[in-house]
Every structure is written in structure tokens, then in C-alpha cells.
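Field guide to reading this record: the first block holds the primary sequence, the second block holds the structure written as C-alpha cells, and the final block holds curator observations. Each block starts with its own label. This record concerns Helix-turn-helix domain-containing protein, catalogued under organism Paludibaculum fermentans.

BLOCK 1 — SEQUENCE
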Amino acid sequence: MAASKMPRILSKSNPAPGGALPDGRPLTLCTGRWPGVEFFVKSQDISRLTTWTITDSRHTAIVHLDGPIHRLETELQGAGKAWEPPMPGEVWVVPGQARYASLAHGRTVHYAELFFDGEHLARFTGAPAAPPPVRPLAGHYDRFLQTAVERLRALVASSQDLAQLSAQCLSQTLYTHFFLQYSGHAEPANRRKPTSTLPAETVRRLGDYVQANLAQALTLDGLASMAGMRPQPFLSAFRASFGTTPAQFVIEMRVRRARWLLRNTTLDITRIALDTGFSSHAHLSTTFRARLGVPPREFRAGLTQPD
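BLOCK 2 — STRUCTURE
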């Protein structure tokens, strides 16, 4: 039997660092294709208000790599949401056939797009398998995916055969990670009970309120009152609108704010803990490690380590 050929890098370019097309169109810095995975790294000047849209039969992960985004409003599967400016390593997950649209404004940004073909899963596992459903996410921090994308970018830029072999291996690791991390279990349609969602304006108002009051005590009753609802139906509507519970959403926002402060300020960790609603340094460290795999001190130290 003839040996199969290794999937090859499709194209690559090496513009000056920070380079972007002057008319605002995205500039593709590198791209690769392997079984079940297609990969792009792009640079784009978004100093003018820019619209990003995606509708693809494959699942998509968009990873923000660097560059300031001052404004970002995202619509994913019809639910309008406004998010704080992204930080490096944050991921937007768009399920196949879902509609994604964002309105962005900032400066020159770099980001990766990964397209995952769910039909490849059966060939990948060697057993019959229906493609699992993937849940939409916006602004979720994925440290592993960030690190792997940067490594894949470096491998794609190399012409060495071992680099291409490593890129293919890493692409399959990313494929596995994506479905382990972001797939969910859907109920059969005949058993699924319809759940009402919150109005878009209520979603925006709740998100803004939580983000502005992270250092304060936030309660289910208080949030439900803001929405004009009783706690139990509010809990269901919140989960249907945000994709998580109010408690988990608050924790996610507190950890995110702590991560921003660790990255952008020299505040001591105890001060950061109290400013983001944690009761102590230890409380922040425990939650931070559970979410990101490293304690705050190691996360901050890693930002200054050479590549």
C-alpha cells in the first residue's frame, strides 16, 4: 500500500510585524489544512468600525492573539450581547450553521480562525460516531488553545519537514481539545422543553450591571428583580440567554477582571482579589487555579517570560 502524503501547508506570507492592509481588509499571515482542521492567522486594521460575520457548516473557533479592540458587540445564534474589550487568549466558538456577527473598533489586531469538521470525528476515532453538538461561547479564555495556536503558527512558518509533521500532530491535538472542551449533549427534540430567553436589552443591562459591580455582593434575588422576574423563572431564562447560571457568570467575570488587572497593572494580588469581589488572596488563588490551571502569581510571572 502506498504511503499517504502528509497534508501540506497551503500558503504563508511574512509581512512586517504588525502589518495590515490599509483598506481594512484582513491580511492572511499564514494558513494550513490538515484532516478535519483548517487554520488561518490574520491581521486587520479595525480603526474604522468593522463588521465580522461567519456562517459555515463547520464549527469555528476564533482566538484573539493581540492588538487593542476598544469596542466589540457580538451576536451569536441570534442573541445580542455586548462584551468588554477582548484580551489575548479569549475564544469565540461558533457552532456549525450558526450565525456569528461582531461589530468591532480598535487598532491593528491579530487573530486566528480554526474550522473543525465534525464529520471527520468518525475517521479520527476509527469508530462510527455522530458529530456532537457544540455550544456557542463568546469571550471564553482558553489558555491551552492560545498556546497551541501560537505554536502552530510558528510551525506553519517553517519549511522543515519535521515542522510540518509536528504541525499535523498538533492540529489533531487541537481537534481533540475542541470537541472535548466545547461539545455538549443535546436533548432529543421531542423531549426538549422550550425555555424563554431574556430580552436583548435585559441581557445587556444585566451584563453591564454585573461588570460594574464585581466588588459588590451580587444575589440571585437582586438580579431577578432587575429583570422584573421571580428567581426560579429568571434562573431558567438567564441560563438560556447567557449559556450558564448567574453564579457561574459572576465567577467568570470576576476571574476575567482579575486576569486583566494581573496583565495590565502592578496591583498586589490581595488588592486585586478584593477589587474583584473575592474575600481574600486565597479565595482568588483557589478560584483562579481551578479556572485557568495556574495561580495568579504564576499567571502574572508567565506574562514576562521570554518566548
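BLOCK 3 — OBSERVATIONS
DSSP finds ten helices and eleven strands in the chain.
The first strand starts at residue 9 and ends at 12.
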